[in-house]
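Q: Protein A?
A:
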Amino acid sequence: MRGRPRGFDRDAALLTATRLFWARGYDGTSLSDLTAAMGISPSSFYAAFGDKKSLFAEAVQGYMQRYTAIYIEAVRSETAREAAERILRDSADEFTDENRPMSCLVVRAAIQGGADTIDVRKTLEEHQRALAAVLAERIDEDKKAGRLSADVDAAILAEWVRTLWEGLSNQSNAGVPRVRLHEIITLAMRGWPRSTSSAGDRE
């Protein structure tokens, strides 16, 4: 009957789908896999999510929103260095959270996907560029305040953080535990540029 309330928890079903996409990739996850895991019929699936591609896009958007929140909260830190470290550490915690899909769903699923996921890779790239720009603006603020040298390239430094982020994601995919990821972050942050001022030299 049209308009009848769905007999399942849509949010829980979306999380189930997200976990499947993380584990198997987009192309490796079939409609029958999804409906079996969700415990719903194909007709209920189509009514709730449209199709597999739409469901994957929704899973990706929800996943990216988590990392957007991490960036937005981090750039409120006192210094850009603290913001960068917080981005990396909070993301590492997300990658290894046992109650959520492990590591970077988007990277893993998009790499394993085919033609249908090309637009998702483009969405990911645009999203990551936008987040890098947010951090670059925070870095520029530190340059103006003298906490970083004027010759620091904010865009390159933000991309350095993004590169570390992707490396942590890949390491998590390979099963590296949380504690080791944090050890990697501690070592990596030694490469953060120092200011010529005494205030910027303090870590």
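Q: Protein B?
A:
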Amino acid sequence: MSAVLNAVNRTLTGLVGLVLLALGGSVLAVGLGVRPPSWWIHQGPHDVLLSDAERTRWRDAGWWWPAVLAALALLVLLALWWLTAVLRRRRLADVLVDTGDGETALLRGRALEAALTADTARRKGVADTRLLLTGRRTAPRARAWLRLHADADPATTLRDFAAQALTDARVSAGLRALPAEVRLRAVRHRAERVA
């Protein structure tokens, strides 16, 4: 779902940008004296985009104002939906766990996050950790942000996280796989003085 939303965001943003660039560039070019094609809506630097006749043509029709208001309301609703979809964090509420007897149980996503975060924070080289579970409850994904001590080896810490903390969480929750995206960052520290 996240990949689809990202693709839709990129496509819509690109299309809106291209339309605005084309319209703005053409109006600027006509304003600077470039002769537009005969079919273009703006014919010269002293021409208006909408004449009085064009602006008031449908004013007396009974359907005009309801249609305009409905179109604007639909546009606002679509913009709000897009905004909430982009800003909403896709945190996983619960994970479906196979109990081994043919039944399933629900494990709270925050409980699994907390256990994995605590396990990771105890690992050598890790100063601080933040973790978020995303995806579907039958196929969760982990996103981890690890802050490492200055003397920690990133490759060793990453191997330790994948082989121990992530594997323990996957096995204890009875998941076939628990893919993870891990971002590593070093803890900022003051320079040491040499005497």
